[in-house]
Amino acid sequence: MRAIELLAPAKNLVCGIAAVDHGADAVYIGADRFGARAAAGNTITDIAELVRYAHRFRVKVYVAINTVLTDEQLPEACKLIQEVYNVGADAVIIQDMGILQLDIPPIPIHASTQTDNRTLSKVQFLEKAGFSRVVLARELTLRQIQNIAENTAVELEVFVHGALCVSYSGQCYISQAMSGRSANRGECAQYCRLSYDLYDGDGNQLERSKHLLSLKDLDLSDSLQELLDAGVTSLKIEGRLKDVEYVKNITAYYRQKLDDVIDASQGRYIRSSSGRTTVFFTPDPEKSFRRSATDYFLNGRHSGIHQPETPKSLGEFIGKVKAVGRNFIDVETSKELHPGDGLCFITTHGGLSGFSVNKIDKPCRIYPNQMPESAPGTIVYRNQDHAFDKALKSNTSERKISVAMVLKEAEQGFVLELKDEDSYQVSVLFEVEKQEARRSEGVEDNLQQQLGKLGSTIFQASSIKIEISKPWFIPASVVNEWRRRAVEELERTRENAYQREKPAQRIAVAYPEKRLTYLGNVTNEHARQFYLNHGVEVVHPGFEVKAEKKVPLMFTKHCIKFEMGWCPREGQTMPVAGPLTLRHGQQRFRLEFDCKKCEMHVYHHAVNI
C-alpha cells in the first residue's frame, strides 16, 4: 500500500484553497521572495492561512524557495525557511545547495527540478545528501523513471500537466545572457516562446517567423497508472502563474482520473489526504490554457512535441469551416457554441488569428464580432468557452470528510460520539434531565435528521446511530447545539494530532562528478563549500556570477533536426549546409547537435546581421 499525492499549484491563497477544495493532496506555493516564479510571491500570513486550511484535510503545503542565491541573500533565506517552518509548512523546495550549509529548522527538503535531476547517480546523491523528495526532470522516459525508483528509496515527484520549458530545468541561461533576467532567479524572459527564422550555413532561410523552441503543454493524464506502477509518489501540476479557474479545472480533472486508478488498484495505492471531493461541473483540460498537448518523452522520442505556429493557447478543437458568408461563418462541429466564446485558427501565413462570437444560428452559423480572413477547410479551435468560464466562477466543488455518529444514553444525560475516516474520535457528554416524549413516533428519525445537518462543516455523515432505551424528548435546538460542540471538538482533535514529517537523514556521500562547471549553478560560497565537502575538486561559479563565453545557453532534448526529418539516428541526412542558426531581430543563435546524447545545444552567435 502506497500513498499517492496529487500536487497542485497555487499562485496565491485563493488558488491554494481552490486546489484543496478540488481534490489536491498537496499544494506548492511561493513565498514573497526566492521563488522560481518571481511574480507569484505570497506573505507568511497567507501561507499560514493556507496551511491551516489545508491541514484540516491532511493536505500538505510545500513552499518553493528554489532560486539560486547570493552570499548576501543566504541569511535572509535561512530566516524565511524558519518562518515557513514556524507557520506549519510541510517542506521547502530548493535549488541552491548552499541552503544545506545553513542552520535551518528540521523541515523536509525537496530537490527542485531546477537541480537537473536526470540521472540515477544524481538522484542517489540527493537522497543521501538529505533530500526527502526529488522532482525529476520532465524529459525522462517511463523506463528511466522506473530505473531510478528501483534503485532509490527517496520519494519521486514528476510533472504530469502544464507548460514545458524547452531546456532542461536549471540549465537555461539564454534569458540571463541576453536580457540579464535569470531563469534561475525566477525572472525568465521566455526566449523559448519567441518567433525565429531558421537559416542554414549558406544563409538560406528555411523557416520564417516560427516558434521553433516553443513546446506544447504536457498532458500525462492517460499515463497515471503507468507512472504509479513505475514508482512515482507525487503527480505534479505545473502552474504557479495560472489563475484560480485553471487550478479548479485541472486539479478536479486529475483528481477524478487519479481516483479511478486508485479505486481500481485493490489497495495497492491510497490517497494521501482526507475527504472526498464532489465537483459541480465537468472538468475538461482543453477548456483551460493549453498549447495543445504532448506526452513529451515519457514514451520515447516522437515528432510533434512543439507548436511552431503560436505560443498562445489554442484550446479545444471545434471543427472545420464549411462556408464563409458576408458576415457569418458556417462551421461543421458537434460542439455547442455560445455568444461570447473566443474562437481561433491558424492562418495561411502560419500565424494565429481569433475572434469573438456575437451570435449563433443553428446548426452552426457563427456571426463574429469581426469577420476573420478564413476559408473553407480552416480548422477552428475554441480558446475561451464563455459558459464554462462563467460556471467556474461560481461554487464548483465540495470536499467532505466522512464521519460516523452515535448518540447514546448516559447516566447523567446523553453522549454524542464522532469517529471520522482517519479514525480520530471524540465522545462528548451532555448532562441533561431526561424527559420522555409525548409521542414516540418519529423520535429517532428526527434525531438522525438533526444530527446529519453538518452543513458548512468539513464533515459528512457516513452513518448515524441512535442508541436510546426510550423515545426521549430532545428539542431540535438542543441536538443542533450538541452536534456543533462535538464537531468543534473533533476539529480540535484533528488539528492537535497533525504531525509533520521529519527531515531525511544526511549521509556522507561523494558527488558523482569531480569537476563542476557553470552548469552547477554555484552562486555563493556556501554552495561551493557544499560541493567541496562532497568530493568535488574544481567548482566553477554559476553563470549568474560569471557569464562564460562560447558556452551553450540552452540544453534541450527537443531537436529541430529531428522535427525537420534530418535525424542521423533515424538514418536521415541533413540536405543543407550547417550550422543551423536561429534569428530573432538582431539576435542570432547557433545550433549544435550532440547526437550521441540526443540533445540540441543553443549558443549565442554574436554577429551583426
Tell me about this structure.
By secondary structure, the chain is of the alpha/beta class. Among the domains are: 2-164 and 216-279 and 281-287, Aldolase class I (TIM Barrel); 316-392, Beta Barrel (Thrombin, subunit H), CATH 2.40.10.170; 402-497, no CATH class. 22% of the residues lie in helices and 27% in strands. The chain contains 13 helices and 29 strands. Helix 1 (13-21) packs parallel to helix 2, helix 1 runs parallel beside helix 8 (244-263) and helix 10 (443-451) packs across helix 11 (476-497). The radius of gyration is 28 Å and the shape is globular.
Give the tags.
about 600 residues, alpha/beta, TIM Barrel, Thrombin, subunit H, eight-stranded parallel β-barrel, six-stranded antiparallel β-sheet, about 20% helix, about 25% strand, globular
Task: Offer a concise description of the structure.
With 609 residues, this protein is an alpha/beta fold. It has 13 helices and 29 strands.
Set out the fold topology.
Blueprint: E1 2-10, H1 13-21, E2 26-30, H2 44-56, E3 60-65, H3 74-86, E4 91-94, E5 109-111, H4 120-128, E6 133-135, H5 142-150, E7 155-162, H6 174-179, E8 196-199, E9 205-210, E10 218-219, H7 224-230, E11 234-237, H8 244-263, E12 269-271, E13 276-279, E14 316-324, E15 329-333, E16 342-346, E17 352-361, E18 365-368, E19 379-384, H9 386-392, E20 397-410, E21 413-420, E22 425-431, H10 443-451, E23 459-467, H11 476-497, E24 515-516, H12 525-533, E25 538-539, E26 554-556, H13 560-563, E27 581-584, E28 587-594, E29 599-604
Parallel strand pairs: 1-2, 1-11, 1-12, 2-3, 3-4, 4-5, 5-6, 6-7, 7-11, 20-23, 24-25
Antiparallel strand pairs: 7-10, 8-9, 8-27, 13-20, 14-15, 14-19, 15-18, 16-17, 16-19, 17-18, 20-21, 21-22, 26-29, 27-28, 28-29
Helix pairs in contact: 1-2, 1-8, 5-7, 10-11
